[in-house]
Amino acid sequence: MMRIGFLASHNGSNAQAIIDACESGELPAQPVVAVSNNGAAAVLERARRHGIPSYHLSAKTAGSEDALDREMLRLLRAHGVSLLVLAGYMRKVGPATVAAFEGRIVNIHPALLPKFGGQGMYGIRVHEAVLQAGEAETGITIHLADGEYDRGRILAQCRVPVEAGDTPETLAARVLNREHRFYVETLAKIASGEIELPALTEAA
Ligand code: GRF
Description:
- By secondary structure, this protein is α/β, with parallel strands linked by helices.
- The protein has a single domain (2-192), classed as Rossmann fold, CATH 3.40.50.170.
- 38% of the residues lie in helices and 21% in strands.
- It contains seven helices and seven strands; from the N terminus they run βαβαβααβαβαββα.
- A seven-stranded mixed β-sheet has the order 3-2-1-4-5-6-7, with helices on one face.
- Helix 1 runs parallel beside helix 7 and helix 6 (124-132) crosses helix 7.
- The longest helix has 25 residues, at 168-192.
- Bound molecules: 5-O-phosphono-beta-D-ribofuranosylamine.
- Residues 8, 10-14, 87-88, 108-110, 176, 179 line the site of 5-O-phosphono-beta-D-ribofuranosylamine.
- Residues 8, 10-14, 87-88, 108-110, 176, 179 line the site of 5-O-phosphono-beta-D-ribofuranosylamine (GRF).
């Protein structure tokens, strides 16, 4: 069974949807750990409520970027993580962790990459840019993550309409609402092998 480790920085509504789907049996996976760079992130409390070990870990708490990377990898291995799920994680994943989990780190982005991605393209800014560009539709991209922002093989995309009178906020809400189902559906395809990921390169 897939053992999911979450990295998230804020609310964690995507992590919540995934945890719920694991508990209901819809998603044959087990959430085993949640890590946040933000000690006040709601995602940590959400995970705790479900008995999932949660950790606040950042370059500040670890002492340096390098120590963060090493400590992150140690934690993920200690919990036997086999799939790293980024759900609103606002940091790059360190090189040792990326190498150990190569091809097994997934991220969700609230737009149709490759447009509207990259450094600084997060949160409400994504939806502002989509409206600014006059796009008729936006969407969601789930992709493999590496040490850069919003790069890596696209695993799945879904479209979400832009509606007349949309503000960045209304568009953000429509996209986020769709993300929850879409992340669960895509992870289910990974679990079933319909979307094929490489095996872990090293024993976790
Ligand atoms: C989502 O919009 C996701 O696409 C982006 O960060 C947001 C996280 O929301 N990467 P939440 O913390 O899961 O509620």
